[in-house]
Design a protein that fits this description.
Rossmann fold, Alpha-Beta Plaits, 2 domains, 6-stranded mixed beta sheet, 50% helix, binds magnesium ion
């Protein structure tokens, strides 16, 4: 152990140091309390051997300073004193000491006490490492329960929770909220012709594309299920949502993922349904999802490879009256 020995009598300090070093401990020596405190902060010893009567502050003072400074940490403190009244022992323990030995102390007693403290220290370190392992395992579980394994996006459950939260927030702020549901066109044919592994890769590709277009921290993309994805875009009006959808389609087109069995062409395409509203008291996650689903249905029945906005009654391939074609 790395032991901080605080003792103002040089002869005694030397003798104890010799014993400790003989038994393989590393010793830091201090003559007075304030010097000991500096060494404590600099060296973080495993244990303190602490005299009570010192030239400046006493050992009780030093023990209190250390207990206050170390917070959740614990460094064993053993008092070594010639004051042998019960009340002295009481004061030492009350100040934060873990044991109290009366000088002169035999080598055997000192060794035994150090061994016992070492055991406590080891046990404490083990507990801390188990607690840390548990904390990490919990964090991992929490992450897993909120995310989709394949794509790493939020899963349906956390997406629904987020949608509830964003509806409430938009209701308070009066800002428009956009929900988009989209899915990969003819994904079954993709899977059937390319195999499920390629199908998984395709979904991962779409997921990372969605993640990359959700540039604001408040935007959330999720895997809603199968080849279906959801996007929550807070503070996004219907025109902004349409611009977003067009940009998304453009990026997908640029990536040119082959879909050899698509009736729409040779590339992977997606269709999406957009709904935008300023939520009122009647708006629920369910009602928004139904509207987005209805819009998605319209995008598909209009020929797929497009996004349809329910509020604009317009798909991303059409241009609104007075709106420039992108
Ligand atoms: Mg002394």
């Amino acid at each position: 152990m790395r032991v901080l020995l605080v003792e103002d009598q040089a002869a005694l300090r030397g003798a104890v140091t010799q014993v400790l070093e003989h038994h393989g401990h590393q010793v830091f020596q201090a003559e007075h309390a304030t010097q000991a405190l500096d060494i404590f902060h600099a060296e973080h010893p495993d244990l303190l051997l602490l005299d009570v009567v010192l030239p400046d502050q006493d050992g009780y003072w030093l023990a209190r300073q250390i207990r206050e400074a170390e917070g959740a940490q614990w460094t064993p403190i053993i008092f070594l004193s010639s004051m042998d009244h019960d009340v002295d022992l009481w004061q030492g323990i009350e100040a934060g000491g873990d044991d109290y030995l009366i000088k002169p102390v035999s080598e055997m007693v000192l060794r035994s006490k150090l061994l016992a403290m070492q055991r406590l220290l080891d046990m404490r370190r083990q507990l801390i490492s188990v607690a840390e392992e548990l904390r990490r395992a919990n964090e991992h579980l929490r992450h897993q329960s909120a995310h989709d394994d394949l794509t790493g996006l939020a899963n349906r459950r956390s997406f629904n929770a987020e949608l509830h939260a964003q509806i409430a927030a938009a209701r308070r702020s009066g800002e428009p909220l956009t929900l988009i549901l989209c899915d990969v066109d003819h994904f079954k044919r993709y899977n059937d012709s390319q195999g499920h592994l390629e199908g998984d890769r395709c979904l991962q590709h779409i997921a990372s594309l969605l993640k990359s277009v959700c540039r604001r921290p408040c935007d959330q993309a999720a895997r809603y299920g199968g080849e279906e994805f959801g996007l929550i875009l807070p503070n996004t009006p219907k025109s902004g949502a349409m611009t977003f959808a067009r940009a998304l389609q453009q990026m997908l087109n640029q990536q040119a993922l082959p879909h050899p069995d698509s009736p729409l062409g040779s590339l992977v395409t997606i269709s999406g349904g957009i709904t935008t509203c300023v939520p009122d008291a009647e708006t629920t996650a369910q009602s928004l999802l139904m509207r987005a689903d209805e819009a998605l249905y319209r995008a598909k029945s209009n020929g797929r490879n497009r996004f349809f906005s329910l509020e604009m009654q317009l798909d991303s391939l059409q241009s609104a009256p007075g709106m420039a074609t992108i």
